[in-house]
Amino acid sequence: MISQVIDERSIRRLHDLLDDASKIAVTCHQGPDGDAIGSSLAAMHVLTALGKDVKVIIPDPSLTQLRKLPGAKEIVDASRYPDFARKLLDDADLIICLDFNVPTRTGRLADAILSANAPKVMIDHHLDPGDFAAVTISHPEMAATCVLLFRVLCRLELFNFIDKAAAECLLAGILTDTGNLSYNVGDPELFTIVAELVRKGVDKEALTRRLFMTTSASSMRLNAYALLKKMELFADDHAALIVLSREELNRFHYSKGDTEGLVNKPLEIPGIVYSCFLREETDLIKVSMRSVGSFPVNAICADHFGGGGHLNAAGGEFYGSLDQCAELFRSILKDNSQKYKQHLNK
Ligand code: 5GP
Ligand code: MN
User: Fold this and answer.
1) Which of these, 326, 279, 323, 273, lies nearest to 297 by C-alpha position?
2) Exposure string (b/e) for 283-298, b if CB count within 10 Å is 16 or more?
3) Which atom of ligand 1 sits closest to the CA of residue 277?
4) CA distance 156 to 173
5) Is residue 314 in contact with ligand 1, taking CB distance under 6 Å?
6) Which of 34, 156, 169, 252 is most buried, with most CB under 10 Å away?
7) Predicted TM-score of the model (pTM)
8) How many beta carbons lie within 10 A of that of residue 239, not counting itself?
């Protein structure tokens, strides 16, 4: 038995909204990761089994390793089919928003989500939930949206509708957001949930291999190059910085997802508390940060890079040159105002 954490009123309202809906649109944040895709596909499988007409709409493509999840081929990518995506949102009776806290996190889908008439349901684990949904189920203490969705489905008495396909999608999300059950695993009930998903027939070993232990030679070389030639360590400031330009990415035939996990590597070095990775994209610099302990990289991303995220995993964007962005990060880590440095000692 897992404990009840979601308030009864939200569950009842969600139950009623689901009862009234036949066409359901499920959507998630841009740059969808395993938790975003996993929760969306799991919702699709369960609600389809309930007889609903369900479409998953994503703002832009997911990583290639997620495209083998059951049902992934049915996903509508709004960057390829913008008009169809808008029509699906306009025609839906209910829009389920997974793994994001504010509509801007869906990028190009934000306007369509907000202007659609259908009531929205948010199920998410990011801090600071926005107020745009008829039902908001926000639990930042959950390791993944997939954990929260599993709990929601149990409370809706839909546990038996979680088939092997849905279970695999839920486990993919949990493994993604916990680094294959490495962090954010303080809640013992998380393992009860994982056990239930394995009991549904999911092959955890194969899933781990697909999600974390499969890479191309060029991606492996790019990551090796980044660590060997591009990792700057600021031992006194307990920080690390990796910067990759467009030219460097092109040299290693970069494709989306090739640097997934790179930002975590410097944290393996004793004494390094936070790590920043800057990747030059065509029109912006993508900022990615990770930390250990209580150092709040989400605060740095919110204060300086128009972003946010979790305490230990956050991101944002920078509009300017790669050098300017790197300089800004170096100035932040040298800033002695104590705003962030006070968290280094804990
Ligand atoms: P990643 O470094 O894997 O791109 O992102 C890590 C986490 O940071 C994400 O799960 C998300 O919570 C947050 N994040 C990443 N990019 C952004 C961004 O541009 N804006 C905000 N608000 N959060 C972001
Ligand atoms: Mn998540």
Assistant:
1) 273
2) eebbbbbbbeeebbbb
3) 2
4) 20
5) yes
6) 169
7) 0.93
8) 26
